[in-house]
TrEMBL record:
GO terms for molecular function: kinase activity. Keywords: Kinase, Transferase. Residues 9-63 form the Carbohydrate kinase PfkB domain. This is Ribokinase. It comes from Candidatus Accumulibacter vicinus. Transmembrane segments: none annotated. Pfam families: PfkB.
Length: 85
C-alpha cells in the first residue's frame, strides 16, 4: 500500500502488503459455487505458502482442494505497462 500512486517511470516502496487470492478462473469458479452451481476447477498453484493458502481457501468455501496442480519451481511474474508505459 502506498500514500499515493507512482508517477510514470517512478518506483515506490510499499509500506505494507495485502494479499488476496484471485484470477479470472478462480473468481468465476468461486462466484458460481457461491450461487449454488456444482463447480470443478482445474488450477495450477505453487508448491509454497501461497499455493497452500489457495487450497485452504477452497476448503473454507466448501470446495474440493484435490484439483489444483501443484508445481515447484521458480516464481515468474510478468507485468505489462500498457500504452501509458
Amino acid at each position: 500500500m502506498w500514500d499515493r500512486l507512482p508517477h510514470s517511470g517512478e518506483s515506490l516502496v510499499a509500506k505494507r502488503v495485502f494479499r488476496e487470492h484471485g484470477g479470472k478462473g478462480l473468481n468465476l469458479g468461486l462466484g458460481l459455487h457461491r450461487l449454488g452451481a456444482k463447480v470443478d476447477m482445474l488450477l495450477a498453484v505453487g508448491a509454497d505458502d501461497a499455493g497452500e493458502a489457495v487450497r485452504r481457501a477452497l476448503v473454507a468455501e466448501g470446495m474440493r482442494d484435490d484439483s489444483p496442480c501443484v508445481r515447484a519451481g521458480p516464481l515468474v511474474a510478468t507485468t505489462y505497462p500498457g500504452r501509458l508505459g
